[in-house]
Amino acid sequence: MQGINRANHYVLGGLMLKVENVTKYYGKNCAVDHLSFTVKNGEIFGLLGSNGAGKTTTFRMIMGLLDSNSGQITLDGKKIDYSLTDQIGFVTEERSLLTKMTVQEQIIYYGRLKNMKEQDILDKLDFWLDKFDIRDYKNRKIKELSKGNQQKIQFIAAIINDPKLLILDEPFTGLDPINVNQLKEAIYALQKKGCSIIFSSHQMEHIEHFCEKLVILVKGKTVLSGNLKDIKENYQKKNIFIRGNIVPKDLEKIDGVLEVKENTGEYEVKIKDSSIVNQVFQKISSCAITKFVVEEPSLNEIFIAKVGESYDE
């Protein structure tokens, strides 16, 4: 299988999903606190947070399974109710398949729930089974499939009716790298058709790969939101990667150097902001250096910092 070419084939136009100042209480516990974000047509949006941050509650409100205490959620300007939920697909973190059914029976069941004609369901099922190289599993019972193949079937069930909005909650759980690649290609194919996607994962490398915009929640509150590129550029701490014959202790003495780590012959120097770069370079300028690269911090670093800061407050 060829590598994935990421392409932003957004369908231009108005807003797709709009979450406006939404708050949800369970008794006295505030699960979601004045949350706002928008997801445009063909956009992949990241909704992040540690366990208990309010992501699942938000997903359930978007699906119309829960009502908010205040604020509103609209899809193409309309309040989400049962007349619109057929346009939303949801791949849950916990598998929700009926394991005694065959793959075909399962997909027909979900397709009929979404008011699809049986022949249309079967045609689309064949398309996706071929796409995922699992055509031979069509008449197998769900319980006979591996966890990875069950995840593929759950994905097919969620998108069998070409939803306008797709929610992916930890979609790569249980998948090996080859299957992850197949699912990524499927997600991009849906995006090119104009499907809006909300993506949630604890694996930050997937968020960085897919999402241009994101929100990070802690205890129901937004602690960071915006364009991923801007978030990384505005985050003051940077990383310098150095390969060469240097003395780490000399760098650790520089005010503004936070940490120096060695990883397989390469040094990672964490600095408080970009103003420290020249000082580091001058300190090692007389050494034999084969690499000196300044990079933005990873989303994982930013996530840990922001979530940790909020818990410390």
Question: Can you walk me through this structure?
Answer:
The protein is an alpha/beta fold and 313 residues long. It folds into 2 domains: 15-227, 3-Layer(aba) Sandwich (Rossmann fold); 236-295, Alpha-Beta Plaits. It is built from 10 helices and 14 strands. The strands form 3 sheets. The protein has a 6-stranded mixed sheet with strand order 6-7-8-3-9-10. Strands 2-1-4-5 form a 4-stranded antiparallel sheet, covered by helices on one side. Strand 4 (70-75) and strand 5 (78-79) form a beta hairpin. The termini are far apart. The model is unreliable at 1-13 (pLDDT under 50).
Distance between the terminal alpha carbons, to the nearest Å? 48 Å
Number of helices: 10
The second-level CATH architecture of the largest domain is 3-Layer(aba) Sandwich
Helical content class: 25-40%
Can you list the strand order of the major beta sheet?
6-7-8-3-9-10
Give the name of the CATH superfamily of the largest domain: P-loop containing nucleotide triphosphate hydrolases
Average pLDDT over all residues: 87
- Overall tally of structural domains: 2
Which residues sit in consecutive blocks of at least 5 with pLDDT less than 50? 1-13
Kindly report the CATH topology of the largest domain. Answer: Rossmann fold
CATH class of the largest domain: Alpha Beta
Main sheet properties: 6 strands, mixed
How many distinct beta strands? 14
Beta-sheet strand percentage? 25-35%
